[in-house]
Design goal:
alpha+beta; two-stranded antiparallel sheet
Length: 184
């Protein structure tokens, strides 16, 4: 089990999974447009960018996780990942359209309802899994995480892995929410 660096399998899944998501987003937009609907994959537009705002810190102009939360597909973890009924270790993507879809009634009032740490204090496994020390009982330090992901990981994995590693994911593996909603 990996403790400091993402596994090669994780890095490949992260890289190729996101390539697949990009193709899937484009495909879904194309299908919707052919049927006469307006559609856009916000992450693939020129409007998407990462930003650093003094009031919120690191952020972006679009979040796939927040779109999934708004659609009622899960809630956030202590590490800011999205815990769905199938867990936190996943890739997700979104397309925005004017096609009217049936509403999902699974939305939770508490945006962290699926996190055991928030639910009853019985967990915190992601805290111990984070090699950057970017997660504690108060949440996720995005700046520390970014420095580790864009600093230490490439130094360690470049030349050893056959993909460029843009992520760590250790906080999403070997934790109770890895493959399920642990609160259920």
């Amino acid at each position: 089990m990996e403790r400091c660096w993402p596994s090669l399998e994780w890095a490949r899944t992260r890289t190729h999974g996101e390539e697949f998501n990009d193709r899937l987003r484009k495909h879904v937009v194309g299908i919707l447009e052919k049927r006469g609907y307006r559609a856009v994959a916000p992450l693939l537009t020129c409007h998407f960018q990462s930003i650093h705002d003094a009031s919120v810190g690191l952020a972006s102009t679009w979040s796939e996780r927040h779109a999934a939360y708004a659609a009622g597909l899960g809630t956030f973890s202590l590490s800011d990942g999205l815990i769905t009924e199938r867990g936190i270790a996943h890739r997700c993507g979104s397309v925005v359209t004017n096609l009217v879809l049936e509403s999902n009634t699974l939305r939770r009032k508490n945006p962290r309802a699926n996190c055991l740490h928030v639910h009853d204090g019985s967990c915190g496994a992601c805290i111990g899994r984070c090699p950057a020390g970017a997660i504690d009982a108060s949440g996720h330090d995005k700046q520390k995480c970014k420095e580790y992901v864009h600093g230490a990981i490439p130094v360690e994995t470049t030349g050893r892995y056959d993909v460029h590693v843009l992520g760590c994911g250790l906080c999403q593996t070997d934790v109770p929410c890895e493959g399920r909603n642990p609160v259920r």
